[in-house]
Design a protein that fits this description.
With 170 residues, this protein is mainly beta. Helix content is 4%, strand content 55%. The protein contains one helix and ten strands; from the N terminus they run βββββαβββββ. It has an eight-stranded antiparallel β-barrel with strand order 1-4-5-6-7-8-9-10. The longest helix is centred in the middle third of the chain and has 7 residues, at 71-77. The two termini are 26 Å apart.
Length: 170
């Protein structure tokens, strides 16, 4: 991408454009079947320092709105022994990015079901005429969040792929 086409990276808070952002999950099970789904990103922000380096990153994913394309499975996932979304509808993340070559690592803490877990996301950033796009990936261990489902039902690791668009806060 040419520098002329790049969006000006202003110092300050950048906020999520929810309509242009998504978190996609995929999880296998013991039978090696992979289930995918979408989790809305309720909110997210990035603080950009005067040196142009991103600082604090915060995000909230709406687990209660998880959509795997199968309403019965989604209802089962929301039950107390699994995601328990009636009591814990969100997954929150707070982290700090660090540049690794041309890409970024965002290290921080994810919290769901009152369990807080260290998480590292691999991320890339691209500027465009209408903001900044961020792509990030991580794997989450479901047992670390207190989910105790048989491996036949839900694999141990959930892959999360995030595509998010940010613009400067008003």
């Amino acid at each position: 991408m040419s520098a002329a086409a790049a969006y000006e990276l202003r110092t300050g808070r950048w906020e999520l454009v929810a309509s242009a952002s998504t978190a996609r999950i995929s999880v296998g099970n013991f039978a090696r079947r992979v289930v995918t789904g979408d989790v809305p990103i309720r909110s997210a922000s990035v603080e950009l320092g005067a040196d142009g380096v991103p600082g604090q990153v915060e995000a909230v994913l709406d687990l209660a709105a998880l959509d795997t394309g199968n309403s019965r499975r989604d209802a089962d996932l929301r039950k107390p022994k699994l995601l328990d979304t009636a009591r814990h509808p969100d997954l929150t993340f707070t982290g700090t990015p660090a540049r690794i070559g041309d890409d970024w690592q965002v290290r921080g803490r994810a919290c769901a079901r009152e369990h807080e877990v260290a998480v590292t996301l691999s991320a890339s950033l691209a500027t465009a005429a209408d903001g900044v796009s961020v792509t990030a990936d991580t794997d989450l261990e479901v047992r670390a969040f207190g989910v105790r489902a048989p491996r036949l039902l839900i694999g141990r690791t959930v892959h999360v792929h995030i595509e998010a668009r940010f613009i400067p806060a008003a």
